[in-house]
Amino acid sequence: MKIKVGFGFDVHQLKEGHPFVLGGVNLEHHSGAYGHSDADVLLHAICDALLGAANLRDIGFHFKNTDPRWKGISSILLLQETVKLLDEKGWSIGNIDAMLCLEAPKINPHIPQMQKNIADAIHMSQEDISIKATTNEQMGFIGREEGVVAYAVCLIEKASGNR
Ligand SMILES: Nc1ccn([C@@H]2O[C@H](COP(=O)(O)O)[C@@H](O)[C@H]2O)c(=O)n1
Ligand SMILES: C[C@@]1(CO)OP(=O)(O)OP(=O)(O)OC[C@H]1O
């Protein structure tokens, strides 16, 4: 069995009146993340962790932020496309562990739904998808609610000699 780890990071600006989608959940908040897609930083960090583990470049390499196909797209679809890229190389996902960093809103009540959205989208057990959150203790751009950050690590595996 071949096992690899991957790491991903993403950051998006927060702007008044924008939708705020994290882990496929639409959060009620005065501001939301701004990007070319739905700007779901959590899913983008997870995509980058998966691509990094498989040495398949990064999310912007596969889904360019100038491509009209991805304008406003749900990042759940980008995650599904990412998992297909890994699948083509024979990789399956062991587990994902992610960390959100934002002052507000509180993420804890939404974590089970985020885990379910991800698990359903890429056919994993919710038990293998960990999501956590922290504030930045009111410091810096996160503390001023100008941006939201996510980090993710993952483990992927395949039988030795498989593709
Ligand atoms: N947006 C957030 C931030 C934090 N949490 C939860 O609150 C706990 C305390 O956060 P601190 O940054 O003050 O340490 C944290 O461990 C999370 O459980 C949250 O749900 N949403
Ligand atoms: C997801 C993509 C593509 O729509 O755009 P954004 O939503 O701007 O997100 P980012 O994390 O900057 O990078 C990847 C992009 O190419």
TrEMBL record:
Binding-site positions, a divalent metal cation: D10, H12, H44
Residues noted as binding 4-CDP-2-C-methyl-D-erythritol 2-phosphate in the record, renumbered to the chain: 10-12, 36-37, 58-60, 63-67, 134-137, 141, 144
Cofactor note: Binds 1 divalent metal cation per subunit.
Positions of the record's site feature: Transition state stabilizer: H36, T135
EC nos: 4.6.1.12
Functional pathway: Isoprenoid biosynthesis; isopentenyl diphosphate biosynthesis via DXP pathway; isopentenyl diphosphate from 1-deoxy-D-xylulose 5-phosphate: step 4/6
Enzyme class, first EC level, given as a word: lyase
GO terms for MF: 2-C-methyl-D-erythritol 2,4-cyclodiphosphate synthase activity; metal ion binding
Primary role: Involved in the biosynthesis of isopentenyl diphosphate (IPP) and dimethylallyl diphosphate (DMAPP), two major building blocks of isoprenoid compounds. Catalyzes the conversion of 4-diphosphocytidyl-2-C-methyl-D-erythritol 2-phosphate (CDP-ME2P) to 2-C-methyl-D-erythritol 2,4-cyclodiphosphate (ME-CPP) with a corresponding release of cytidine 5-monophosphate (CMP).
Protein family membership: Belongs to the IspF family.
Protein name (Swiss-Prot/TrEMBL): 2-C-methyl-D-erythritol 2,4-cyclodiphosphate synthase
Organism annotation: Pedobacter nutrimenti
Lineage: Bacteria, Pseudomonadati, Bacteroidota, Sphingobacteriia, Sphingobacteriales
Gene name linked to the record: ispF
